[in-house]
Design a protein that fits this description.
Elements: H1 12-19, H2 40-63, H3 69-74
Length: 91
């Protein structure tokens, strides 16, 4: 999922696709960078976005959970754990 103004670096899609050869992988998240970060205001936005994303990811690692963000949640995707099962369900 990309926002309307998002762009992937050349070759990113093929590198990410290879990760899914592992059956244990159910999702992947790429690093997000703000374009135009040579300007001070956008550099601060880039730093803020990266820091918040990193803290969120550390929380996901600590709790063994995943998140697709508000867009996927609003599309009706059920929440799931790192195992790919919905929380509270037995295997």
């Amino acid at each position: 999922m990309l926002d309307a103004d998002g762009r992937m670096t050349p070759g990113a899609a093929s590198r990410v696709t290879r990760r899914f050869a592992d059956p244990a992988v159910g999702g992947a998240q790429l690093v997000v960078r703000i374009r135009g970060r040579h300007r001070w205001a956008l550099r601060l936005q880039d730093l803020e976005f990266w820091a918040l994303s990193a803290l969120t990811q550390f929380g996901r690692i600590a709790t063994g959970t995943v998140s697709m963000g508000a867009t996927a949640s609003s599309a009706g995707s059920p929440p799931s754990t790192a195992s790919g099962r919905a929380p509270g369900r037995t295997p």
